[in-house]
Design a protein that fits this description.
Layout lengths: L9 H21 L7 H20 L2 H13 L3 H14 L2 H12 L3 H12 L3 H12 L4 H13 L5 H7 L5 H14 L5 H7 L5 H13 L3 H11 L6 H11 L3 H11 L5 H6 L1 H4 L5 H7 L6 H11 L10 E2 L18 E2 L1 H11 L10 H14 L19
Amino acid sequence: MVLRRVAVIPDIVVRHAEEAAFLWLRRGREIDGQLLGADDIGRIDRRLDANLDGLEAAGSAGWETAVQRFALFPEAGEAFVLGTLALRAGDDERLAIAVQSAKTLGAAGLKALSGAAARTARQRLRGCVARWLNSADPFERTLGLCALSHHRVNAAAYESRLIEDGDVTVRRRACRLAGELGSRDLAARLVHHMQANDVGEVFEAACALCLLGEDAQAVPVLDRLVGHEAFGARAVELRLLATPGVTGRRWLQGLLEQPTLRAAATAAIGVVGDPVIMPWLIRAMRDAALVRPAGVALRDLFAVDFNDTDLFSIDPTLFPDDMGRPLEEGELPVADRVAQWWDRTRGEGMTAFQSMRTLRLGSLRSAMIQPGQPLHNWRATRCFPAWM
């Protein structure tokens, strides 16, 4: 798309930069969550693109505003705006500034430039992605792998080399990419990576093997990770997706009987997808330690829009005193209301809804059914009509 240069009003350009950073951060918070669906993300994308277009149309004033914003607020949203404008312009000097700025933020900066690459057309990325993948800088090599992932580009030579990279962050991302692209030729090397010292590398290798149909080798490793603070919840989800049916239910029951794992197991109940658990789940909603994961499970169990109901609330008067602090983290299910709803409807007759989390779990499930196929990118930007 060619944007015509327009008369520049400085305050409006600043507003575009602020809004673009804010909307990208909001998208990131919701993209794997339960509150928004694909249409909701599409609306955010439409607004985000409009603000980015405004900055691009402002020409050098748009770029200079983005640079100034990052100098004042050196955060991920501002780094994303810098990176997106630089990539859209195809300007190597601007791109170098964006990369160096993002590097000062560490992992958050990498995520920002990864997001910028995701929103840039493949044709505009070809030259810089090749440079990143061949760079001596591990930050740039990882960024190159992120770009391949977002656009589902199979670059076998780079995958094969970077999965054995000397930097652990690069190896982690290369392992994940192997699963996302369905690179079954790397399965044996992924088994080796499950023996790594870095737990993140171990998890990414196990996840990739599940997507490649080698879950029998990955499951014992996932079992060891279920109690890990950073990877435990996702390990439980993957384990249930890899071992559906009676086997998975029995395994989950074993976790529910362990006090230290009960919360993570409760949150994963919806992955099993059996509403027969509802009476137990309603009882869990009366337990301060389980009420939030029970809410996660409820939203997973039913493809309905709970945002249109009063079943979740932040009103402290609806909960026992010992649930006061968790309310600061967002809505909780109200056990009495959920019980009445369940008795009255059995989960039927409500507005159909698929959350982004549901789409993520569905993509993982489909990949495991058809190993070797690229993982569907549920996070991709949607084309969304301006009149909706």
